[in-house]
Specification:
Length: 259
Amino acid sequence: MGCMDGKTGLVVGIANDRSYAWFIAKSILREGGTCLFTHLPGEKMERRVRKAVEALGVEDPWLMPMDASSDESMDVAFDAIGSQHGTLDYLVHSIAFADRDWLKEGKFVGTPRDVFTQAMDISAWTYMAMANRAAPLMSDGGGMVAMSYYGAEKAVPGYNVMGVAKAALEATTRYLAMELGEKNIRVNSISGGPIRTMSSMAVGGFSQILDWVEQKAPLKRNVTGQDVGDSAAWLLSPLASGVTGQTIYVDCGYSSMGL
Ligand SMILES: NC(=O)c1ccc[n+]([C@@H]2O[C@H](COP(=O)([O-])OP(=O)(O)OC[C@H]3O[C@@H](n4cnc5c(N)ncnc54)[C@H](O)[C@@H]3O)[C@@H](O)[C@H]2O)c1
């Protein structure tokens, strides 16, 4: 018996088998849950995500295209969940985007308006937009989790506009928790430590961040995908029934250090 037995939810953000979303789905599946998946539109994207999902042991996965920059695309995906599954128990939001030209040391102050608004839109606003579509399907309460990073609260060289977007994501978490709590829907974020993924490799100086964390974190190592996946499964499960509006650090303790 697992802590996600009988729970069906949507996992958004698998690009490949290194994505945080992939590890989160792995933990949910191990704990007895059922996962529905989306991929960015396009045949190549579908192939890549399908391969990653099948590597999780999910045969014939429920997989729909969804581009979170389009309201219509989100409507189509959530309508399909409603008509084909009826209800949802959880939502995993594990997506972010910013123009990599502005994710380099010394490249914050000149961030153009369109780069700033796109980062905020895809990385923060979409948590609210997906929550708004998922909540009506959560007829028996539910859980939501999004992925943040320490750069939301401290300036991390190279993280730049993404840090601002993550601060907005963490604030969005609290406001969503406030409004959805009445329906017994819990809304949280995980502030995950750095791991190598397609997105993180776009952040300038990322390898130095990994080295630094390994030296300074209390556990003297970087997190693994499983560290975060297991914490997400816990947060989405009834084991975390009193936890909402929080950003939970899963970072080997790095954020607890002063120096
Ligand atoms: N890797 C890290 O070090 C790290 C640390 C803390 C937090 N995070 C966060 O974890 C989340 C997942 O990132 P990851 O590191 O697993 O990288 P990843 O590249 O594997 O995943 C990012 C996902 O975002 C999706 N995405 C981007 N734009 C989208 C759009 N318009 N519509 C739908 N999906 C879109 C991509 O398709 C991809 O699946 C992000 O929010 C990221 O900021 C990552």
